[in-house]
Design a protein that fits this description.
Layout lengths: L9 H6 L5 H9 L6 H10 L2 H10 L6 H7 L3 H12 L4 H11 L2 E4 L7 H4 L7 E6 L8 E5 L6 H16 L3 E4 L5 H15 L6 E3 L13 H10 L1 E4 L11 H12 L2 E4 L7 H11 L3 E4 L10 H8 L3 E2 L3 H7 L22 H7 L4 E2 H8 L3 H13 L3 E4 L2 E4 L6
Parallel strand pairs: 3-4, 3-7, 4-5, 5-6, 7-8, 8-9
Antiparallel strand pairs: 1-2, 2-6, 10-12, 11-12
Length: 394
């Protein structure tokens, strides 16, 4: 094993830094050429801190999955990563994430969305604004073209509104056109009643709004639901990130609805990803003269089930029209005095001192409350860090 100064291994130095694993996972995600497949393979083979130390020390992996993910030029890639790592301070990366109010979930951790953990291509790390707790219950992806018709946008808006009102979370990529219309409809349902929170998946860092005109929608989705990305902060909306994003949209969905689509494009790629996962795809019929409906009409010609209203989607999900799938909470409700502590823990790994500052409680009162929350399954303790576990609302 490579050694740092003083005879201490780079892995040992990283692990002893006092930073949570999420800090090193975020630093790994920011390395040049660190795509989703490589990051996932590395984090499945090794914890984030030792993996970062391995890169700093220039020591390669022997794990077969990692070797395959790094490819034939792994030596050159490792040398590139080692050089880049000298310019990246995981502590500074972590401070920026905390200052931005962004959460980080590493595959295998308590806060990682279960819907993604079982996927065939799970992200190694997920960054989020808002509450990952909303990734539960029935979920439908509403996708389509950016160059949609006014009729298509209206249909997507109505589907988003009616599905959310029925307790079905709407998933989309927050692109202009159909995606945005579906989420605006879902948000409208939340304004009128207790609608299901929206789930957005984007193809850039959560601090890089794309398209720029979607900033208000990004804020609304993060405020009312959750915004997810596997891209590190500062990541630009590079072309390759959108097919990668589409696989996450498909993975999060119980069903995919295409409202309007050309024969090729992002929404049809999402269809392909849904097919790979055995997820049903439905389509809204369109005019045979409308270019924006050539893809959806083609899906119908293949035998996909048509969608004329949200009721068709609810029936396909096994729900009654205008019905609601209950979200049962099996954990015991926290003691009322412990709820402020739970809120203070939040979705980021937090130290005992940080939670004490947030609550204003002394250790003698705080520690037993955290013990109770851990025992009842609301909080996970890892080393000296506490993190709320994704689940229901107390």
């Amino acid at each position: 094993m490579a050694r740092a100064l003083g005879g201490v291994s780079y892995g040992e130095a990283a692990a002893a830094s006092g930073l949570p694993a999420e800090a090193f996972a975020a630093a790994l995600a920011g390395l040049p050429g660190m795509g989703p497949a490589r990051l996932s393979a590395i984090l499945r083979a090794e914890r984030a801190a030792p993996a970062w130390g391995r890169i700093c020390g220039g020591t390669g992996w022997r794990d077969a999955d990692v070797v395959a993910a790094l490819g034939s030029r792994s030596d050159a890639l490792m040398a590139r990563w080692r050089r880049a790592a000298t310019e990246i301070d995981p502590a500074a990366v972590w401070r920026t994430i905390v200052d931005e109010g962004i959460g980080v979930a590493v595959i295998g951790s308590a806060g990682y969305p279960p819907a993604l953990a079982a996927d065939i291509e799970p992200p190694g790390v997920v960054f989020h604004r808002g509450s990952p707790d909303v990734v539960t219950g029935a979920r439908v992806a509403v996708v389509g073209t950016r160059q949609c018709s006014s009729t298509g946008a209206a249909i997507a808006w109505e589907l988003g509104r009616d599905l959310a009102a029925a307790g079905v979370a709407v998933v989309s990529g927050l692109a202009s056109g159909i995606d945005a219309a579906g989420h605006r409809g879902a948000l409208a349902a939340m304004g009128q009643a207790a609608g299901a929170p929206p789930i957005g998946v984007v193809g850039s860092g959560l601090d890089v709004v794309y398209p720029r005109g979607q900033a208000e929608l990004w804020r609304a989705v993060a405020s009312q639901g959750v915004l997810l990305s596997e891209a590190p902060l500062g990541a630009r909306p590079e072309r390759w990130r959108f097919p990668a994003r589409n696989r996450i949209i498909a993975a999060l969905a119980d069903l995919v609805v295409v409202v309007e689509s050309h024969r090729t494009g992002g929404s049809m790629h999402t269809v392909d990803e849904a097919d790979r996962r055995g997820i049903d795809v439905m389509a809204v019929p369109g005019s045979v003269r409308a270019p924006a409906s050539t893809g959806t009409n083609g899906l119908l010609a293949e035998g996909r089930v048509p969608v004329c209203s949200a009721d068709d989607v609810l029936v396909a999900l096994g729900l009654r029209p205008a019905g609601r799938r209950p979200r049962a909470e099996t954990r015991p409700r926290p003691d009322p005095d412990d709820i402020p502590v739970l809120d203070a823990v939040g979705w980021q790994p937090a130290s005992l001192d940080q939670i004490g500052v947030r609550t204003g409680r002394v250790l003698a009162i705080l520690a037993p409350a955290l013990d109770r929350l851990c025992e009842s399954g609301w909080v996970a303790r890892r080393g000296g860090w506490y993190e709320r576990v994704a689940g229901g609302t107390p």
